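User: Show me a protein chain along with its predicted structure.
Assistant: Here is one chain, sequence first, then structure tokens.
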Amino acid sequence: MFVQPSARLLRTRAFSTSAARRTTSVTLKALGLDAYNLGVYNGAWGGNGTIVESVNPATGEVIGAVQQANLSDLNQTLDNASQAAKIWRSVPAPKRGEIVRQMRNALFAKIEPLGKLVALEMGKILPEGIGEVQEYIDIADYAVGLSRMLNGQVVPSERAGHMMMEVWNPVGVVGVISAFNFPVAVYGWNSAISMVCGNSVVWKGAPTTALTSVAVTKILAEVLETNNLPGAICSLASGGAEIGNAIAHDKRVDLVSFTGSTNTGRKVALAVQARFGKSLLELGGNNAIIVHNDADIDLAVRSVLFAAVGTAGQRCTTTRRLFLHADIHDTFIERLIKAYEQIKIGNPLESGILCGPLHTKQSVRAFEQGVEDVKAQGGKILHGGNALHHLVGNFVEPTITSIAHDAPVVHREIFAPILHTIKYDDISEAVAWNNEVGQGLSSSLFTTSPEKMFNWIGPEGSDCGIVNVNIPTNGAEIGGAFGGEKETGGGRESGSTAWQQYMRRQTCTINYSGMLPLAQGIKFE
């Protein structure tokens, strides 16, 4: 049912256009950006490709423009990055960590304007924009410590007078293709870890968040140049599908880290595998929360609200499916709808707003199609369901549905705030329904039963890469490995042993005996 927006929301819309212009001007200036910006950096700034305009999704106004790379620009950038990698890999790892520490400090000094640019360009609310920059800062802190712990291991040799060990060395050039929804953090996860591992990085951000890519690169480039290091260690090649496709196919890129849709990720994986390169894929998520009848309902309602509505449903870890035990189903739905009714939609820079716009008009159309598919497939709209076309930006109502677990629309990831609710009787069927979709990124169970908790995280439980208990599906900490299984791609970024993907493992045997005994007791004389 359509709900007339409040007077407060209407004031927000009337205010936003002029206020956004002032905010944009101040923000761009603080980050060294102009109305027109070069989008290629490989030690020097350039760009000979098409010019792309960045649009504020809350107002429809142009924020600024970026001249992207063409294929010639990318070729030069990859050459420069390859040369820079040879210099960077010879720098001791703890000294590489010191450079990342300086980058961390430089990012911290710009956290407010950079977070504000994320809000302006991507559309997420300001606290989330600043939080995203903080996530880059946090992973840089982690990487600094990691630079002293890139440890191999000693392996006992069966041959006398021999030493066998495992060592790790840089892969060379890492290509990072990131998505619009986290235009700072995803690059940060890859760049900070990859750099301390000794690699140079070539970044292609999303064309719709190109200003953020330029702003981040300017911050990093200044640190490199101050330390008399090649700027191409942190290269940027802004562009669209043509540039991403070229990166995937180019043998000079030793590892391609791709974040985006499953369909595009499949093409990237095939292109990289065809040349026997390495790929790291972080793709779609169709994440579920299960709330059992012994759960803390208040905790679960607050968690679902954040997980389903945060970033306007545009996180890869957004909760899209909610399985509720029959005993608590009706009560939970009633409380959840009341919570949804309190959500303020509007200008993401305004205090108190919890749901900003979708990123593009295309996203709004996908939302509307999703709502129509729910109705066509026997589902009901319990709350929301409308695109707010009377507002200037790409705003929609956070939506709750009731639908069968196996409806085709439930198995499709819609990058919008649509939450499908499903009733279950036995937890085993809820776990099976969690696992039945193609994606396998994040999942969470709300329960107070230790038995159910440990079954959930065990071999008979969730098949996702992230398996939580009594917390939302989103908001992952940087210390753990981030990524998922199945159509989510199998890659891991951020913490734990994710660093090993940015290096090549070598098993080394050193003979200091003066003799030549062969393994397995073989005689060859």
